[in-house]
Amino acid sequence: MRIAHFGHSCILVELHGVKVLFDPGTFAHGFEGITGLDAIAVTHQHPDHIDPNRIEALIEANPTARLLSDPQTAQRRSEGWEPVSAGQVLDIGELQITGGGGRHAVIHPDIPVIDNTVFQLGTAADPAQLVHPGDSLWVPPVPVGVLAIPAVAPWMRIWDTVDYLRAVNPRTAVPIHFGIIEPAAQGIYFGRLNEMAPAGTEFRAIQPEDQAQF
C-alpha cells in the first residue's frame, strides 16, 4: 500500500493496483494535477472535504474515475456521484470498498447532523486494510491495518481521539484533518497520540505532499 498526503483529510491510496483519492477539500493542496485515478471518494459534504471550486477540474482530468460519496453529497451534486451507505460493498478491480458509519460526529446539538460515510478498503478476506473515517469516530467491526485518524477537529477533544485510536487498535495510525491548526502545533497532538496509542500500534505522520509505503 502507498499513501500520499495532500493536506488535511486528502490522501491518495494505491492498493491492489487501484488508486483512490479521498476528500480533496479546501485545505488540501497538490492534488490538482493528479490523473489516472480509479475513484474519487468523498466522506461528506463539508468544503474542507470537497472543494466546490476545484472538484470539477479534478473530475474532468479523471474521466473514468468512479465518484463515490455519502448519500447526501451524491444527491447534492450532478456529476454522477454514487452514494455509498453503511454496509454497502463495491468492487473496483481487485479492491473491495465497504461503507461504514453513516453520520458525521456531533458538532453541537443546535447543528443538524449530516451524512458521513466511512470508507474501508481491502479485500473480502481482509476488508479494512485502510480506513478513512472522514469526520466520524465509528469503530469498524473488523481488524484495521491503516487508520487515517482525525487528529484535530472542532467536534473532538484529544480525549476522544485517544479513545477512538484505542478502540480501533489499528496496526498503523496516520494522522489527517490537521489543516485547521498551525504547523507548529502539530507536535502537541501527534505527540499525545503517539505516546498514548495502544501497544502494537505504529503512529506514523505523513506531511502534506509526501508519501509512504505500508
UniProtKB/TrEMBL annotation:
Top-level lineage group: Bacteria
Metallo-beta-lactamase domain boundaries: 7-177
InterPro entries in UniProt: Metallo-B-lactamas, RibonucZ/Hydroxyglut_hydro, UPF0173_UPF0282_UlaG_hydrolase
Protein name: MBL fold metallo-hydrolase
